[in-house]
């Protein structure tokens, strides 16, 4: 019996990675439990194991027990308890192993695809890539190799639950760390990542060495490094932004490729009023507000974007008095941007406005736009672009 158990323990130590002293403690505990279960006489049982000879000695009240029947029942019970303990220990080993890999990228093969997510075979364990953590549009089949970010590791009664993600912003960060040696070596630092998974990511980088270009390092020769990351992300667009301790410069970089005319900072509320030429407004905001939203996440600033034709109110136009301003507002014309959409003929249709006055208003509005000095309150409809 002793040799069989010891051989099993040695095999478990090699295959499962459970330390020998842990297994021996399990064996002792199991044998004591078996004794108490077989002979519930409230006597004191003890177990001693000679690690060299493999001899197991069971004592009751200090005297060795040599009952063959007891030995048979105890061994059978002990095996059952040991199996259970080993399963628990194996789960703990897997849990501890993957808990230490939180935030890392791991590879596995697709075991099966379910509605709730993809079950990934990692070798010693299985993980799940939930549907919400998958990049929109990408598909996998059984047997495909998949790389993902270890998002969470939960301990359950059925064993460790390993949750993976391919949509996490840190997944992109880890991919760049693997792809760019300068990041791995600490020369280039990733300061922040903002991501709209499957569509676009902005990543801010900074170089601790003036001789090393942080953006160039991430892009790589002929763009190969960033292309490798884009390929892993199913074609997701990536903007590499140069980080700066100067908030104004950092904000301008974050909204690239748009060109900003002016940035007014409110450090107390961390709000930035951003002025751009009208033709840059859509580019600054981006499709469905994506560019400005990601830039705000990346910098931690709240943005108020204004176009050139929104800076001044109608009263700031030369030749427009209070009565004329009220007349225009009564007909829904409240900003200079509203005026430049109209012609003199359109304004002339408003009762009380003559041809000459209409022409003067149009000319004044166009003059301010050309000079690049026209900004006013925010037109929220622009955010719907």
Radius of gyration: 35 Å
Tally the beta strands.
14
Count, helices: 14
The secondary-structure class comes to alpha+beta
Share in β-strands: 15-25%
Q: Architecture of the largest domain in CATH?
A: 2-Layer Sandwich
CATH topology of the largest domain: GMP Synthetase, Chain A, domain 3
Span from first to last CA? 77 Å
Mean pLDDT: 83
Q: Can you list the strand order of the major beta sheet?
A: 4-5-6-8-7
User: At the fourth CATH level, what is the homologous superfamily of the largest domain?
Assistant: K homology (KH) domain
Describe this structure in words.
There is one protein chain. This protein is of the alpha+beta class. The protein folds into 4 domains: 2-99, N Utilization Substance Protein A, Chain:P, domain 4, CATH 3.30.1480; 105-165, Beta Barrel (OB fold (Dihydrolipoamide Acetyltransferase, E2P)); 168-243, GMP Synthetase, Chain A, domain 3 (2-Layer Sandwich), CATH 3.30.300.20; 261-385, K homology (KH) domain (GMP Synthetase, Chain A, domain 3), CATH 3.30.300.20. The protein is built from 14 helices and 14 strands. It has helices spanning 2-16, 20-38, 68-99, 169-179, 181-184, 214-219, 224-232, 247-254, 278-285, 290-299, 322-330, 336-340, 344-348, 355-371; strands spanning 45-49, 56-60, 63-64, 105-113, 117-121, 126-130, 145-156, 159-165, 188-196, 200-207, 237-242, 262-266, 271-276, 302-307. The strands form 4 sheets. It has a 5-stranded mixed β-barrel. Residues 372-385 have low confidence and may be disordered.
């Amino acid at each position: 019996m002793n040799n069989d158990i010891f051989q099993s323990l040695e095999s478990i130590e090699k295959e499962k990675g459970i330390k020998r002293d842990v297994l021996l403690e399990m064996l002792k505990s199991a044998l004591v439990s078996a004794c108490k279960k077989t002979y519930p006489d409230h006597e004191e049982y003890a177990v001693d194991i000679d690690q060299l000879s493999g001899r197991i000695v069971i004592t009751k009240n200090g005297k060795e027990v040599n009952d063959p029947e007891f030995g048979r029942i105890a061994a059978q019970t002990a095996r059952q308890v040991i199996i259970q303990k080993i399963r628990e220990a194996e789960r703990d080993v897997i849990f501890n192993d993957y808990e230490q890999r939180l935030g890392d990228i791991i590879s596995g093969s697709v075991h099966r695809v379910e509605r709730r997510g993809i079950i990934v075979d990692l070798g010693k364990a299985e993980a799940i890539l939930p549907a919400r953590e998958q990049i929109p549009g990408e598909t996998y089949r059984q047997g495909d190799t998949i790389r993902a970010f270890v998002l969470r590791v939960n301990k359950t009664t059925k064993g460790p639950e390993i949750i993976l993600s391919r949509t996490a912003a840190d997944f992109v960060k880890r991919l760049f760390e693997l792809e760019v040696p300068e990041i791995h070596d600490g020369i280039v630092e990733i300061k922040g990542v903002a991501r709209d998974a499957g569509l676009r990511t902005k990543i801010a980088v900074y170089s601790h060495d003036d001789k090393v270009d942080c953006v160039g390092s991430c892009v790589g020769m002929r763009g190969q490094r960033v292309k490798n990351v884009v390929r892993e992300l199913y074609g997701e667009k990536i903007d590499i932004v140069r980080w700066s301790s100067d908030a104004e410069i950092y904000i301008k970089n974050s909204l690239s490729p748009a060109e900003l005319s002016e940035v007014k900072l409110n450090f107390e509320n961390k709000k930035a009023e951003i002025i751009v030429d009208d033709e840059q407004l859509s580019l600054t905001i981006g499709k469905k507000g994506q560019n400005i939203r990601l830039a705000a996440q990346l910098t931690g600033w709240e943005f108020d974007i204004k176009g050139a034709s929104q800076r001044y109110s109608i009263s700031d136009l030369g030749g427009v008095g209070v009565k004329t301003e009220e007349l225009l507002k009564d007909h829904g014309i409240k900003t200079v941007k509203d005026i430049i959409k109209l012609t003199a003929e359109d304004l002339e249709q408003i009762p009380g406005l003559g041809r000459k006055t209409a022409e003067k208003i149009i000319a004044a509005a166009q003059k301010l736009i050309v000079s690049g000095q026209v900004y006013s309150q925010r037109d929220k409809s622009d955010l719907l672009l």
